[in-house]
Write a structure and sequence with these properties.
By secondary structure, the protein is mostly helical. It is about 85% helix and about 0% strand. It has five helices and no strands. Helix 1 packs antiparallel against helix 2, helix 1 packs parallel to helix 4 and helix 3 runs antiparallel to helix 4. The longest helix is centred in the middle third of the chain and has 60 residues. The two termini are about 20 Å apart. The C terminus is likely disordered.
Length: about 170
């Protein structure tokens, strides 16, 4: 997204500052929703896993108390065995739910922070490019724009190297 936003600004370099701003803002409005597009699913999955675990805990405790009160068919089990079965069911469902919810919450936090850093980089470098183009039009040189492009490309290469390592 960073390269696309900056490219939109550079492609309009001979246009007015307003047209440059509109071109870059258009790219930002296209890419920012794509960055955050699926992040909301992770907290929802973590909450759902927690609620399913709670449902299993309650179900297991109902079985345990029904067995200890003698109001349910024990299916050949003693009261103690049926009580232990209900409690173990409750504990297993709680443990499974936490095994799903905890890593999901951590993944959501990690990916959310990564998305925010990417959005901050896009904002920072697009603002810097706008200022640089404005200075160039007022009397700066193309060498400044080339230096900016080299700095932005260095940032992009390090970001893509991190992305390719994460994919591997």
């Amino acid at each position: 997204p960073l390269a696309q936003v900056l490219g939109a600004g550079v492609s309009q370099i001979e246009s007015s500052q307003e047209e440059i701003d509109v071109a870059m803002e258009s790219e930002v409005l296209f890419y920012i929703p794509k960055i955050n597009e699926r992040l909301q699913y992770l907290p929802s999955l973590a909450n759902t896993a927690t609620l399913v675990g709670l449902l299993g805990t309650i179900t297991g405790l109902i079985v345990a108390f029904s067995a200890s009160s003698g109001t349910s068919n024990l299916g050949g089990l003693t009261k103690e065995q049926a009580l232990a079965h209900g409690i173990s069911f409750a504990m297993y469902t709680t443990a499974f739910a936490l095994m799903v919810a905890i890593p999901t919450v951590l993944a959501a936090m990690f990916l959310g922070a990564k998305a925010n850093r990417l959005i901050d980089d896009v904002d920072h470098y697009s603002s810097a490019l706008k200022l640089l183009i404005q200075k160039k039009k007022v009397g700066g040189s193309m060498a400044q724009i080339h230096a900016f492009n080299e700095q932005a490309n260095g940032k992009e290469e390090s970001s893509s190297a991190v992305g390719s390592r994460a994919k591997a």
